[in-house]
Design goal:
Number of helices: 6
CATH superfamily: NAD(P)-binding Rossmann-like Domain
Distance between the termini: 30 Å
Radius of gyration: 17 Å
Shape: globular
Order of helices and strands: EHEHEHEHEHEEEHE
Oligomer: single chain
Largest sheet: 7 strands, parallel
Structural class: alpha/beta
Number of strands: 9
CATH class: Alpha Beta
């Protein structure tokens, strides 16, 4: 059967690896022309090559606010309209005590996890609203509701991201533009490599984490619901 989103367009951030790559793979496989955003051009182009002709790239450093705005403008110009879907996935995940968190690290975390998504939403939501359809998906975290040690910057950013989503959802209600928050628990991606959770007390082993494809499946499910259905929030955990 043809996917209900075949032929549509999407923008996915953090798309060169992990959850972002898995989401991009799921969307391109469903026939969605997907613009992939990530910081490292070589890794991004290789990721897109693996996904085939429905994958397009726009390298961008999400800590640079002006670069994010330029990327959004260029993508919209290339598409001739706002994308049908925006998946704000990219994120920094520093594990540092509050006293050891530098102001620069805190600022960069907020820039990538909160301000860059805001800039992309602001760039595209007007076009989505004007045509009466679109879908904005935010990849949240268990840390947007639960506090963990060494999560000062990360939890602050994810809680802010959840609050932004909730306001966005209220503002978009009835417009035809949908907004979904997908918040997974610990997910086994490269983000855990420097942490080594299998050998660090207080962390679940990687074998008991979600897979990036689990999160991608949830995103695909949310964006393929009938147009009158909005998945306001979906929280994922390991069984």
């Amino acid at each position: 059967m043809t996917s209900p989103i075949a032929g549509r367009t999407a923008v996915v951030t953090g798309a060169s690896r992990g959850i972002g790559f898995a989401v991009s793979a799921a969307l391109t496989a469903a026939g969605v022309r997907t613009w992939m955003i990530a910081r490292r051009p070589d890794a991004l182009h290789e990721a897109a090559r693996r996904l085939g002709s429905n994958a397009f790239t726009r390298p961008c450093d999400l800590t640079d606010g002006e670069a994010v705005s330029r990327a959004a403008s260029e993508i919209e110009d290339a598409l001739g309209a706002a994308p049908d879907m925006l998946v704000n996935n990219a994120g920094l995940f520093p594990l540092v005590s509050i006293e050891a968190t530098s102001p620069e690290l805190f600022s960069d975390t907020m820039q990538v996890n909160v301000i860059a998504p805001f800039r992309l939403v602001r760039a595209f939501v007007g076009g989505m609203r004007a045509r009466g359809h679109g879908h904005i998906v935010t990849i949240g975290s268990v840390a947007d509701r639960h506090a963990f040690p060494e999560n000062g910057a990360y939890a602050a950013s994810k809680t802010a991201q959840r609050a932004f989503h909730e306001v966005l959802r209220q503002e978009l209600r009835g417009s035809g533009v949908r907004a979904s928050l997908i918040s997974p628990g610990p997910t086994d991606t490269q983000i855990w490599d420097p942490v080594d959770p299998d050998n660090r007390e207080g962390f679940p082993p990687r074998s008991l984490m979600l897979r990036d494809t689990d999160v991608a499946d949830a995103v695909l499910w949310a964006v393929t619901r009938p147009v009158h259905v909005n998945v306001d929030e979906l929280r994922l955990g390991h069984s």
